[in-house]
Specification:
This protein is an alpha+beta fold. The chain is about 50% helix and about 20% strand. Helix 1 packs parallel to helix 3, helix 2 runs antiparallel to helix 3 and helix 3 packs antiparallel against helix 4.
Length: about 200
């Protein structure tokens, strides 16, 4: 096209020339990921603040049944990891740091490149992790959990969790599905032989 302009984009330590349209598309994907991160983190912190204000003792009612007896909102303090695992464990700190490093590294590899669905999935993971990290720092070592799901007829009780836990878990499951069950050919073309895209 005569009006098509070139754009220098930094990829894998090298400046690569891509078209203006392609560059705009790439940046939109990262903006989408940022939007997901902000949305998940904000929704998580907002719902936790509501739970603390209305359900925490001594003034709160402590429990609210949404779909009795299956879905209940209940104020809990969780000093462990997601779904109340690894309570008061030093291993938790190591796992959180390792997970953040891995997620950060992987996202850095797809920064300015990669398909949209990868960006959204990593947005869910990063947003969930960020929500719990902020809450843990704010509360001095614990996070607020409040979603309690159970099926009494089957004697099933799911661990109490929050929005960040749900986002983080869904994101991790989708990451594994994308990495191990979806053919990597579409993703690989963003990591190899990219100079051909500008031809």
């Amino acid at each position: 096209m005569q009006n098509e302009k070139s754009f220098m984009l930094w990829k894998d330590g090298e400046a690569t020339t891509v078209t203006t349209a392609r560059a705009k598309s790439v940046w939109r994907y990262d903006v989408c990921a940022l939007f997901v991160i902000i949305t998940v983190t904000s929704l998580d912190l907002w719902t936790k603040s509501l739970v603390v204000a209305h359900l925490s003792p001594p003034n709160g009612s402590n429990k609210v049944s949404l779909i009795p007896p299956y879905l209940v909102l209940e104020y809990r303090q969780n000093s462990g990891a997601a779904f109340s695992s690894l309570q008061n464990s030093f291993v938790l700190v190591i796992l959180i740091l390792a997970a953040l490093l891995v997620v950060g590294y992987i996202y850095f590899r797809i920064l300015n490149k990669g398909p949209l669905y990868y960006k959204i999935v990593f947005g869910l993971v990063i947003g969930g992790a960020l929500g719990n990290v902020i809450d843990r720092i704010h509360n001095g070592g614990y996070v607020v959990d409040f979603i309690f799901f159970r099926i009494p007829q089957l004697h099933f009780k799911f661990a109490v969790f929050n929005i960040a836990d749900a986002s983080l878990s869904i994101g991790i499951i989708l990451v594994f599905i994308l990495l191990f069950f979806v053919r990597p050919a579409h993703y690989a073309k963003y990591l190899k032989n990219r100079p051909n895209e500008s031809a």
